[in-house]
């Protein structure tokens, strides 16, 4: 038995799964290009096409409309980085590759951690491009370095939460047919927040929904960070920390379902 | 059209319509997504009507136009995916063994787009009117909106046929969907062209045909009967259809030679 391989532990599994996912992401244009282009198109459409919204009476965001929309697109790309990784996970289950992961990994939580690391890498690549485009477009950043750490910290936590949500769905459905279930709730919750104008300028049903939508606090805090006027920071980070914890439990349940399914 | 061709088109059209109606996964997103965007935009951008020069006091009237064009974009995917499935399952190869004409095949497959476009347009108009949108062109305008919506849906459907015949893969057709949304997002979707203040975006939106499709709908919804925007809208739909069908006919020949 001296030649028998020792079962891979948490870190080794996470590293291996992450490496493969990142490799696939970088080497397959069908995965890479939509991830990069989608946030850029949203940013171009919102920041470019709606710039005149900054002239609406009552719109008083100090850093301008480009920065206002940058925060939304940043959080959106964070969330969709997680969702796209959920798609990859579902595809691995559909093709049977994930079953090999389950057989080989001594610590199967490492599999989820590996996908989460890949999602983070995917988001970092997208953010780098997004920031470059935003700066070229003349985005004003009035926040300090600490504020920016806060902004990207929020985005990072959103990415982790979205990945764990999507992973939970992927491991329960174990087919790419679960894709709408991964992305639709995230799409809905993002767009039912104050996307185009601040919360105060919303009225009617969308204001009522936005007030109770947790994404509203994340957006307001993010916009406060970029304008150098931090607001609802405690609430935003409380939400951003609770979501990954809840979705970690959700994904653990999904992992157990996948293990039971064999 | 000869009797034989009419029969061929009729058979395939019947199949295409039934196939569309029997797939809720095609119909539901094509109805729900545009209505969701309508709700979000109408609520979130209501204050944009206070911008000087905004053409109407009702943002929902302005934004209702988007639903028709967004809905039509779904026909790229739906028509293309259906034909791609026919290619993947070998159904097209079996069709190729029959005396079926290429024109019949392509025209028949667009019948599903026609029905879907009509269902969508009626649903979008009904929801828009319930939500408080107005139609300046009156009852005749309703008919014209339905006609324009169906024309655009069929035109985009022809692009879906080309994509399916060119790639032969449903996954590849699905992958085109975001690319078509770029045209929608880089148009005068949320604000009138005159109120787009970012220079590069104004330039892109000015040369984007989707802007003029939206303006054709908006002319009926906001202005009344304006022949210019309407003719431009129908002209663009006809041009897209002509390009799509020509490209699809060529791709069909190539595919049949390959098989």
Descriptive labels:
heterodimer, A: 262 residues, mainly alpha, 10 helices, elongated, B: 259 residues, 11 helices, 80% helix
Model description:
The complex is a heterodimer of chains A (262) and B (259). Chain A is 76% helix and 0% strand. Chain A has ten helices and no strands. In chain A, helix 2 crosses helix 5 and helix 3 packs antiparallel against helix 5. Chain A is elongated, with a radius of gyration of 19 Å. The model of chain A has no long low-confidence stretch (mean pLDDT 91). Chain B is mostly helical and 259 residues long. Chain B is 80% helix and 0% strand.
Number of strands of chain B: 0
The poorly predicted ranges of chain A are none
Binned strand content of chain A: under 5%
Oligomer: heterodimer
How much beta of chain B, percentage-wise? Answer: under 5%
Task: Provide a count of the helices of chain B.
Answer: 11
Question: Can you give the helix content of chain B as a percent range?
Answer: over 70%
Number of strands of chain A: 0
The H/E string of chain B reads HHHHHHHHHHH
Radius of gyration of chain A: 19 Å
| Biggest sheet character of chain A | none
Intertermini distance of chain A: 26 Å
Order of helices and strands of chain A: HHHHHHHHHH
End-to-end C-alpha gap of chain B: 28 Å
The Rg value of chain B, from CA coordinates, equals: 19 Å
**Low-pLDDT stretches of chain B:** none
């Amino acid at each position: 038995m001296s030649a028998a391989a020792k079962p891979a532990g948490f870190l080794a599994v996470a590293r291996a799964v992450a490496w493969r996912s990142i490799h696939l992401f970088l080497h397959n244009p069908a995965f890479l290009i939509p991830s990069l282009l989608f946030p850029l198109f949203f940013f171009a459409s919102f920041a470019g096409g709606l710039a005149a919204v900054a002239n609406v009476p009552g719109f008083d965001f100090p850093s301008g409309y480009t920065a206002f929309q940058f925060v939304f697109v940043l959080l959106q790309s964070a969330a969709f980085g997680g969702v796209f990784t959920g798609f990859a996970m579902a595809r691995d289950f559909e093709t049977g590759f994930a079953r090999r992961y389950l057989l080989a990994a001594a610590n199967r939580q490492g599999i989820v951690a590996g996908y989460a690391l890949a999602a983070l890498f995917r988001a970092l690549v997208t953010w780098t491009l997004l920031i470059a485009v935003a700066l070229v477009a003349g985005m004003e950043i009035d926040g300090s370095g600490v504020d920016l750490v806060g902004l990207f910290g929020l985005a990072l936590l959103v990415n982790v939460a979205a990945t764990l949500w999507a992973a939970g769905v992927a491991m329960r459905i174990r087919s790419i047919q679960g894709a709408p279930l991964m992305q639709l709730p995230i799409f809905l919750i993002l767009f039912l927040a104050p996307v185009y104008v601040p919360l105060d300028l919303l009225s009617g049903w969308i204001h009522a929904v936005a007030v109770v939508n947790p994404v509203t606090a994340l957006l307001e805090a993010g916009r406060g960070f970029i304008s150098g006027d931090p607001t609802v920071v405690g609430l935003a980070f409380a939400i951003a920390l609770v979501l990954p914890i809840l979705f970690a439990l959700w994904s653990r349940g999904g992992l157990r379902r996948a293990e039971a399914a064999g | 059209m000869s009797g034989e061709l009419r029969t061929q088109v009729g058979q395939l059209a019947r199949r295409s319509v039934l196939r569309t109606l029997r797939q809720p996964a095609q119909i539901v997103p094509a109805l729900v997504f545009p209505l969701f965007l309508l709700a979000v935009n109408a609520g979130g951008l209501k204050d944009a009507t206070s911008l000087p020069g905004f053409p109407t006091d009702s943002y929902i009237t302005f934004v209702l136009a988007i639903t028709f064009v967004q809905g039509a974009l779904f026909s790229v995917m739906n028509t293309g995916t259906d034909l791609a499935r026919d290619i993947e399952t070998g159904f097209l190869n079996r069709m190729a063994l029959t005396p079926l004409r290429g024109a019949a095949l392509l025209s028949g497959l667009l019948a599903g787009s026609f029905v879907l476009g009509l269902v969508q347009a009626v649903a979008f108009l009904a929801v828009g009117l319930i939500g408080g949108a107005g139609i300046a062109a009156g009852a005749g305008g309703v008919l014209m909106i339905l006609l324009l919506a169906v024309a655009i849906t069929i035109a985009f459907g022809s692009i879906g046929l080309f994509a399916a015949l060119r790639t032969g893969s449903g996954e590849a057709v699905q992958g085109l969907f975001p690319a078509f949304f770029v045209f929608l997002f880089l148009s005068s979707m949320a604000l009138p062209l005159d109120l787009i203040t970012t220079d590069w975006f104004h330039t892109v939106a000015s040369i984007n045909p989707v802007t003029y499709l939206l303006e054709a709908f908006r002319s009926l919804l906001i202005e009344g009967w304006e022949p210019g925007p309407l003719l431009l809208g129908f002209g663009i739909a006809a041009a897209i259809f002509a390009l799509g069908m020509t490209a699809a006919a060529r791709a069909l020949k190539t595919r049949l030679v390959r098989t």
